[in-house]
Design goal:
13 helices; TIM Barrel; alpha/beta; eight-stranded parallel beta sheet
Length: 301
């Protein structure tokens, strides 16, 4: 059985705070007290129009008894997943989850960049006192691109604490905000201004794959994960992943980490891992993608 580190595990629905999703998927920008009802299928609802297949339906969503984190850890054990980056948990749950499942999850905190130094101080506390493993930022939700100056105090603190940052890097389909909020170009400024910072581009920058590859070559501490993309498409001609796969098998083989995103595909960890193993990658490269690169990134070695 292969060893695996998964860069995108979803918090089980039964343990999630439904208000977080409702708020984060609402209107971008500052709320307005007398907002009118939104058109049907607008904003995040448009994802349902774009992705209609059963495959993209979140697994177990809405189930009251999905087994929670206990069942998730059991599923991880069966698939050989030693650790995973858990998304969807509240900052306040960091210490509790680490205590209940020591050494199994990476927990990255999220903050509103408009909270300034209050966010910086709380970030430091969570890392030092609750075991937070890094910082996660997503312009998809708040509409603030990664190179905005309001993030810079958080980046500086992450560099000082020597913890990594995961930045949403991909096109979005929420048609009430710019499609390119997650363009890889925003990472260039961050990597230039914080050369010591370990950065992972979450979701791999599609459809700007060639630019993502160029930036990975350009910045030594910039990495990438494959979350939210099914591995079967990486080797499919015309999918746009051709350069990613070519460089990921050669010059960038030490910079790619897998995000299995099982919750999106409604299947087992074993099935997705099996599809990664079918990609036209060298055997040693597959091991790096599945485990070795993330172990280096998180300094588990």
């Amino acid at each position: 059985m292969s060893r695996v580190i998964d860069m995108e595990l979803s918090l089980p629905h039964s343990e999630a705070n439904p208000d977080l999703e409702r708020i984060s998927r609402g209107r971008p920008g500052t709320p307005f007290a007398q907002s009118l009802p939104r058109p049907e299928g607008y904003g995040f609802a448009n994802y349902g129009n774009v992705f209609r297949s059963k495959e993209t339906a979140p697994a177990n969503k809405g189930e009251a008894n999905d087994g929670g984190l206990v069942r998730l850890v059991e599923d991880m054990d069966r698939a050989g997943i030693s650790r995973g980056l858990l998304v969807g948990a509240e900052n306040s749950a960091t210490g509790r989850i680490h205590q209940a499942h020591p050494g199994r999850f990476f927990l990255f905190t999220t903050f509103d960049p408009f909270d300034g130094m209050r966010a910086v101080r709380e970030f430091e506390r969570l890392v030092k006192e609750e075991g937070a493993n890094g910082l996660r930022l997503s312009a998809l939700y708040n509409g603030v691109p990664a190179n905005d100056r309001r993030y810079y105090p958080l980046y500086a603190k992450a560099a000082e604490l020597d913890v990594p940052v995961r930045i949403y890097t991909a096109m979005n389909y929420a048609n009430d905000r710019p499609y390119d909020l997650g363009h890889p170009r925003y990472l260039d400024d961050v990597a230039i201004d914080f050369p010591e910072l370990r950065i992972v581009a979450g979701l791999a920058g599609w459809p700007w794959v060639n630019e993502m590859v160029g930036l990975l070559r350009r910045h030594p501490r910039l990495y990438v994960d494959t979350a939210a993309h099914h591995p079967r498409y990486f080797s499919q001609p015309g999918s746009g992943w051709e350069q990613f796969l070519q460089f990921g098998n050669t010059l960038l083989q030490d910079k790619v980490m897998v995000g299995l995103s099982r919750y999106l595909f409604g299947t087992s960890f074993e099935s997705i891992i099996g599809e990664y193993k079918q990609l036209p990658l060298k055997e040693k490269v597959i091991e790096k993608w599945l485990y070795g690169n993330a172990a280096e990134f998180f300094r588990l070695n």
